[in-house]
Amino acid sequence: MKNILKYTLASVVAMSLSNCTGDFEDINTNPNGISQESLTQQNNHIGSRFSPMFSNVIRVEPAWNYQLQQNLNADIFSGYMTSPTPFAGNINNQTYALVNGWNGFIWSDAYDANDGNGVMPYAREITQQVELSGDPNGVKFVYLSNIIKVMAMHRISDVFGPIRYSKFDDYDTTGQYDSQEEAYNAFFADLDEAINGLESFTEDAQFTAFDQSSLGGDIGQWRAFANTLRLRLAIRVSKVNPTLAQTQGELALSSNAGLLESQDMLVDMGGFVHPVLTISQVWGDIAMSAEMESILTGFKDNRISTLFNTALDPSLGSYKGIRQGIEIEAKGEYGSHSPIGSAVSGSNKIWMTAAEVAFLKAEAALRGWTGAGDAKANYEAGVRASFAQFGASGVEAYLADTTSTPANFVDALNPDNNIAYNSNVKIAYNEAGSKEEQLEQIITQKWIAMFPDGQEAWSEFRRTGYPRLFPVVVNNSGGTIDSDIQIRRINFVDVEKNTNGANVDAAVGMLKGPDTGGTRLWWDTGLSNF
């Protein structure tokens, strides 16, 4: 009944809009020809589609949806968190036995418009509603929805590789996939069009009522966000296509849209708590990772008290993490390790931070891109911004630390899980180091700063190999995922295979190998960073 009502209302909206477009020119030239109430209603027909888009880039409610959309995949694959719960007898994503039922939520939150899901269907509806309205000023809503769409869909592509994107709006081709290279080219095109197209709307306030972000409907700030997103994606493709990366990166660095260098991009959770808070502190299903313990304690990093709480069992020490992919018989074994801390207790979810922007510029400078500035200055600005974001003290002493390195990991319960940290990366920026050594410093600090967004952290680890993450002890992949190389992607979801099989088969042919978690994505070359 709910779906029938939704489609009926959509038909009424379409009919009402098509009935008024015939005299739209007269209405535009005569401000008395349409009431403000009617104009507001028309904008609602368009603007109401933004709410599910904002909600599903990172879905926070219900918490179990986020747990399946991101937490039990990217959040753990990134080295941020580990679950003490041996789901399905310890044969699950953590031990590389990929659970298709779990991972299907990554896809459905982007494509399925039922039950509050969906990004792509609502972006298509915004385009359709703007076309039906006949108002040329409505194109600003298309530009804005395309920015959110790129924000959402580059994450989906960074999980699966090929996705349904550039052909989605045409019902004759909606099931067809782009290769990841084609998708990224489409992302850059959509961002460029939005950045340029929104320039004439910087004083327009009509998006304010629909903007759920910290940008408050400010079109100028949305241009800056889109431009910063362009820089993020340029860095992402810097190894596979250095020419494209530098071209797009320098466009971002020189654009009059600017970058979000002093402002975080946050999205209001609508009164809900961050799902990681529920998953960790209420359900006890996620805790500190071994890598986080090694890096933060080894660096004597004051951010640790915000990112994590002390261990529930004092005998474990102040902060204690869990190594991913170990043998766990019961939840009680590791359930008293450090839960997630107050970093996720605010009223917003993070899409991008000023700290990330500084680290993007640091790497761009290291790669010699015009307009990036100085790598060391950007690196230090990123660390300072992160300390400020997490309310940590002592940043100047931290940046001057030339000796601290990540600590070796000691499992509190099973010495078979102990492992040495495979790097002596330090904090104080070493301009005399090789480019590879400098990049490891940049990405290690970027990794800390992007917490709790495991999706971006996992992508950066796959692209660069940094920070050094520990291999799993138990590998239940049946040989499809190498423990040392680690998981590179997630296989295509069952619902697509069952309903869109021919196009999925074509998409598999766009991969570098079989449809498994061991196949590298297009931008994941496995080659040297320089």
Question: Helical residue percent?
Answer: 40-55%
The number of distinct helices, counting runs of at least 4 residues, comes to 24
Mean pLDDT: 93
Instruction: Work out the radius of gyration.
Output: 23 Å
- Compute the separation of the termini in Å: 57 Å
Order of strands across the biggest sheet? 1-3
Q: In terms of structural class, how would the helical and strand content be classed?
A: mainly alpha
Uncertain runs:
1-36
H/E element sequence: HHHHHHEHHHHHHHEHEHHHEHHHHHHH
> How many strand elements?
4
Estimated share of beta-strand residues: under 5%
Largest sheet: 2 strands, antiparallel
Shape: globular
Write the layout of secondary structure elements.
Elements: H1 2-20, H2 24-29, H3 36-47, H4 50-57, H5 63-71, H6 74-77, E1 81-82, H7 87-90, H8 100-111, H9 120-133, H10 139-160, H11 180-197, H12 219-236, H13 242-254, E2 265-268, H14 275-282, E3 287-288, H15 290-298, H16 304-307, H17 331-334, E4 348-352, H18 354-366, H19 375-389, H20 395-399, H21 435-449, H22 454-464, H23 494-499, H24 501-508
Helix pairs in contact: 3-9, 4-10, 5-8, 5-14, 9-10, 10-11, 10-12, 11-12, 12-13, 12-18, 18-19, 18-21, 19-21, 21-22
